[in-house]
């Protein structure tokens, strides 16, 4: 079975844990536990229980070996109304359901087949209350949808489209077998990708999303856009969200390093110092060097970034 995006993330997080000493693992684990509610969910930046943050918290809990009650996790998921969710939160719900079963069934490599055999169905894109950028064709929407299909055990087929073909996307025809959508509509003139068709320059995260979709569907082959991403790294080791961003951030850095790793390309600069500079005394990681608070999302990105370091110079 081809590795899904979720499995690639899990494996990189486990490598990130291997970069930490026993004391460091305890330090990060204490922070993660501090973000968990009595019901077993995780909180957002404001301290409110949130499904999106729970997906990050549960993944970190599994990777760090934090004991979790699978029955309590199941009870939390049972309180959620999936019919009202947007695409991002439904994808988070499915990933949470996977992790809940992972805690219940055991090792990562053993639960996948049984999960797929009883997987919950993935609805059509038209069933969601919201999509990223209100555009099902954007690279980020495609990335979330593809990961959702993988997580629910659905197969997808590749249909190559001509460059700049203006074929518009029809959500009702997608269902569970999407074609390869026209990423070229979002390709920036100077390289990389945008999440809107009327943009002028590429953004880091849209480029990462597009490269992930292309890699999962066509194989992780060297191309001009992964080289474009490679050249976005700053000498500090970090990646900024866009050229106009005032400073690099941990999310853009971790996801870029992760994608370079998927394509088998070493980063231009070492990133350990950059990542560790975002590690706070609380045990969590901050979004940027200007932030003094952390949450489970950016702690996830901190561990993900650390998991790519064995691939550095």
Chain oligomer state: single chain
How much β-strand is present in the residues? under 5%
Bulk shape:
globular
Q: How many strand segments?
A: 0
Mean pLDDT: 87
Percent helix among the residues? Answer: 40-55%
Radius of gyration: 19 Å
Low-confidence runs = 158-180
What's the number of helices?
Answer: 12
> What's the helix-strand series?
HHHHHHHHHHHH
Report, as a whole number of angstroms, the end-to-end distance: 30 Å
Structural account:
The chain has 313 residues and is mainly α. It is 46% helix and 0% strand. It contains twelve helices and no strands. The chain has helices spanning 5-18, 22-34, 51-64, 70-78, 87-105, 108-117, 139-151, 204-218, 224-230, 250-262, 272-276, 296-306.
Topology:
Layout: H1 5-18, H2 22-34, H3 51-64, H4 70-78, H5 87-105, H6 108-117, H7 139-151, H8 204-218, H9 224-230, H10 250-262, H11 272-276, H12 296-306
Helix pairs in contact: 1-3, 1-12, 2-3, 3-5, 3-12, 4-5, 5-6, 5-7, 7-8, 8-10, 10-12
Features:
single chain, 313 residues, mainly alpha, 46% helix
TL;DR?
The chain has helices at residues 5-18, 22-34, 51-64, 70-78, 87-105, 108-117, 139-151, 204-218, 224-230, 250-262, 272-276, 296-306. It is an all-alpha fold.
């Amino acid at each position: 079975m081809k590795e899904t995006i979720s499995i690639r993330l899990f494996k990189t997080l486990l490598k990130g844990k291997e970069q930490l000493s026993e004391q460091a693992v305890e330090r990060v684990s204490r922070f993660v536990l501090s973000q968990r509610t009595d019901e077993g969910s995780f909180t957002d930046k404001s301290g409110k229980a949130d499904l999106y943050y729970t997906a990050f918290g549960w993944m970190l809990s599994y990777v760090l070996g934090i004991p979790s009650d699978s029955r309590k996790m199941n009870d939390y998921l049972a309180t959620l109304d999936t019919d009202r969710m947007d695409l991002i939160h439904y994808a988070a719900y499915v990933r949470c359901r996977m992790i809940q079963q992972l805690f219940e069934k055991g090792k990562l490599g053993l639960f996948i087949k049984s999960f797929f055999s009883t997987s919950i169905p993935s609805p059509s894109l038209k069933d969601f209350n919201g999509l990223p950028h209100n555009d099902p064709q954007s690279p980020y929407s495609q990335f979330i949808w593809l990961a959702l299909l993988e997580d629910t055990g659905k197969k997808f087929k590749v249909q190559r489209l001509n460059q700049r073909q203006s074929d518009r996307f029809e959500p009702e025809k997608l269902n569970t077998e999407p074609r390869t959508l026209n990423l070229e509509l979002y390709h920036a003139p100077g390289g990389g990708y945008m999440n809107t068709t009327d943009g002028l320059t590429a953004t880091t995260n849209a480029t990462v999303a597009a490269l992930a979709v292309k890699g999962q569907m066509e194989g992780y082959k060297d191309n001009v856009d992964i080289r474009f991403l490679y050249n976005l790294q700053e000498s500090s080791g970090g990646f900024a969200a866009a050229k106009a961003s005032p400073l690099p951030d941990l999310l853009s850095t971790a996801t870029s390093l992760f994608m370079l790793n998927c394509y088998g390309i070493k980063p231009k600069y070492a990133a350990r110092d950059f990542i560790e500079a975002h590690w706070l005394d609380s045990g969590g990681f901050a979004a940027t060097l200007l932030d003094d608070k952390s949450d489970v999302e950016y702690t996830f990105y901190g561990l993900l970034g650390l998991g790519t370091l064995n691939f550095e110079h």
